[in-house]
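Lab notebook, bench 4. Still working through the backlog of constructs that have no structural model yet. Next entry is a single chain of 139 residues. Request: give me the structure tokens for it.
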Amino acid sequence: MINKIAVITTLLILACIGLLMAIAFHFYGKTVSQEKALSSLTEQKNEAEFITQSQALSVGIFNEISGATLNEQKNNQAASQQRQTVIKTLLETAPCAVVSVPAAANDSLLSHYNAVRQDTRDANTGQSAGAVRPLTSTR
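Model written out:
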């Protein structure tokens, strides 16, 4: 009888050990699969953060460029209004039908033309516009 109890106890202990091993392998497999999923999700999160940062950088660069362009347009408009005022004052004092364009107005427009042509040499339009020679006064 003691022999039967020892055998049954041994079998029960072995069954418990087998059951514990099965449970351990089951949870180990789940841990490995969740680790792979977590790794994949972390990689996707990093890619999404990189894309978001790249877009934010692009928007920032665009805003800087548009701000600089807007400032340049305002400066050009202010300079143009000053030139218009100077030319109008000069033309108001000179009789238009008898005298040619006053030299001061001509020189102002000529220097502005040459400055604009000088600035456009650095522009990259994808095609060559050829060399534009500066105009000289025809007095």
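Notes after review: The radius of gyration is 42 Å. The mean pLDDT is 82. Flag for follow-up if needed.
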